[in-house]
User: Fold Cytochrome b from Acidisphaera rubrifaciens HS-AP3.
Amino acid sequence: MAGLHKSDIKNPVLNWIDTRMPVFTMMEKEYGSFPTPKNFNYFWNFGALAMVTLAIMIVTGIFLAMNYTPNTEMAFDSVQRIMRDVNYGWLIRYVHQNGASMFFIVVYVHIFRGLYYGSYKAPRELLWIIGVALLLAMMATAFMGYVLPWGQMSYWGATVITNLFSAIPLVGTDIVQWLWGGFSVSNPTLNRFFSLHYLMPFVIVGLVFLHVVALHITGSNNPLGIDVKSPQDTLPFHPYYTVKDSVGLCVFLAIFAAIVFFAPNMLGDPNNFIPANPLQTPADIVPEWYFLPFYAILRSVPNKLGGVAMMFGSIAVLFVLPWLDTSRVRSARFRPIYRPLVFVLVAAVVVLGMVGAHRPEGIWVVLGRVATTYYFLHFLVILPALGILEKPLPLPESISNPVLPRRGGGGGPLPGGVPAAPMEKP
Ligand code: HEM
Assistant:
């Protein structure tokens, strides 16, 4: 019949569907035979791990929502009931709670991979930008989710963070009251946060879809950061990377399970075992670990508006990163100055995380300011300058070249795929 897709799928039922809507052909093309660089290392597992974690979060979240009550009088108790009376409620909640941390660990490693191997550079700028939008969406979701159990830290964290908007001149107070739906964090706030916390994961699913569409149009980057030149440089995604991703997934799930079963409250705050009390401010209001670096940037600036601007600025620089890094070479392996500096950036972010967990006193103030300064210098000054100042190492001619035996003996893999000497011409 004219206009119908001619499907190669053997199973008659699937063939019937595929002829009318070629979803199986599409899946085969995008996840079966999809040509994928042959030199991926385990850093390339983390996108798939993020997808699996997102699915786990949605499934556990749906079951939690069946038993949760978004009302300030009942929220805390409904969570206690989930933990004690609902069948496997403790398991569902601990998986969801620790899943948020696992999700951020995975995505932070995923971002580090992108920074190290220059995956944000042309032609993958849009893919990267969608990634940064995903990070923002994840942060908003996690923030609102943390408010739902209505413990002390839920309430006071929400109060501190929503109050930041009051720093905006003229309209700040109006915006904060509009966010609250009242004159403080209260029942309307809890209700809308619950509604949005349920909605946002599906926005994230939509963004992930666009992220993967953008990825499959440009194709993946790889540890050498050079373009795929010939079919010899690639492998079909299945079975090579489905298997490799499965290996990583097993390790990931083992670590995840170990935390859930042996240390489920390791990352939580004891204050959240106390029901929210608007009349009693906790001695320290500390966000979840994954927000600590941003919290530290916020507090490193003595001026409230300045702090808020810098905090949002720390994410905003990521949006324009593809244009701040002017080097032609993608992978840090071939960038002798950039390579150590990525680790300095990581160290600065870790220091910021530690600063965020401590009271802003003494050495922590100094460390916070030094690390904040480095963070912005790295993106706004060092990266643009390196494009001019740095002399990259010679790049391999192709992905296959460093891993296939070379003509004239001396074959075999070169350590890490880095060319020891300028590459031989075949
Ligand atoms: C919900 C969160 C996210 C999910 C589910 C996700 C998923 C994926 C998947 C499945 C891939 C392909 C596999 C891989 O290369 O690891 C990928 C690639 C990529 N992602 Fe993400 N991602 C997320 C967040 C982010 C964020 C926050 C960024 C950056 C700020 C980002 C930037 C990239 C880049 C640049 C690539 C291409 C990497 C390459 O080809 O070398 N992603 N992502």
In short: The CA atoms of residues 8 and 138 lie 39 Å apart. The chain has two domains: 34-228+236-281, 286-393. The first helix runs from residue 12 to 20.
